[in-house]
Design a protein that fits this description.
Length: 274
């Protein structure tokens, strides 16, 4: 059985953990190592259970502790060449990655990391480069899309293949437009290289999901321009307009910005047809 925990999802820090009985795969390390250690202990886990780390892009809220965790646990860090270069240039990263811990990923090219088959794919965002990840293990297809300005044709098939999906619902457009952000920042967020709104997130799910999609988690909510209940209700409404009922046709939950979730259990689908 796979298990999934979010240790933070938002501009204060992003970190997601997907693991089996024997192997663990982390996606982004935008939270502090000391706090991560404590949270792992709270779940009866150890940082030694992490075997691989995938990085989506080089913004600080996704890579804050990448060098420190890699150094302390001797962890290989998987990212595109451009993202590795961006990590090197990011002044927020006080401990840089040693060359021996750097592993390259290429969008569209799958790779096998132990029990996990990982396929990165390009996601539009105003970072050096940004990727989402399709992760296959134990017959399950898990997909994560964060910091996405829009949903491209390249991204749609990955949503369609997902049994479990983490996808950004960053902001409510009305809150953002009427909020305190300066105009340039509003325009950046609303652009095709910015962040996905609640409504656009719902449309992306509804227009691309397969019938077997089981669980969707909304991630990277803005603290200033969104609210968990608003995000959930907006996405639910969009889905209902397409004839999809959250709670019946799929499970829909909002990931917490600054605190861990519980442990989500993801049953193996290898023997589902038997």
């Amino acid at each position: 059985m796979l298990r999934f925990i979010s240790f933070g999802s938002g501009s204060s820090g992003n970190c997601y953990y997907l693991y089996t009985e024997t192997e663990g795969l982390m996606i982004d390390i935008g939270v502090g190592v000391r706090m991560l250690k404590k949270q792992f202990r709270d779940y009866g886990l150890s940082l030694s259970s992490i075997h691989y780390v995938l990085i989506t892009h080089d913004h600080a809220d996704h890579i804050k502790s990448v060098g420190s965790l890699s150094y302390e646990c001797q962890l290989p860090i998987y990212a595109t060449a451009n993202v590795h270069n961006g990590i090197d240039r990011n002044y927020c990263i006080t401990r840089k990655l040693p060359l021996t811990m750097r592993r390259m990923v290429v969008p569209g090219v799958p790779m096998q990391l132990g029990a996990f088959k990982v396929t990165p794919f390009s996601v539009p965002h105003d970072a050096t480069e940004n990727v989402g990840y399709q992760i296959e293990a134990e017959g399950v297809t898990f997909c994560i899309i964060t910091d996405a300005g829009c949903i491209t044709d390249e991204m749609k098939p990955y949503i369609t293949r997902a049994d479990y999906l983490v996808i950004e619902a960053n902001h409510d457009e009305e809150m953002l437009r009427n909020g305190p952000y300066p105009q340039y920042l509003k325009e950046r967020i609303l652009s095709s290289n910015g962040h996905l709104s609640n409504k656009d997130c719902g449309v992306a799910i509804a227009e691309n999901m397969k019938e077997g999609l089981k669980h969707v988690w909304l991630c990277h909510l803005s603290e200033e321009n969104n609210h968990p209940e608003l995000a959930r209700k907006t996405v639910e409404t969009v889905l209902r307009n397409y004839g999809i009922i959250a709670g019946k046709d799929l499970q829909l939950e909002v990931l917490k910005r600054k605190t861990p979730t519980g442990v989500f259990e993801i049953p193996s689908l290898n023997n589902e047809s038997e």
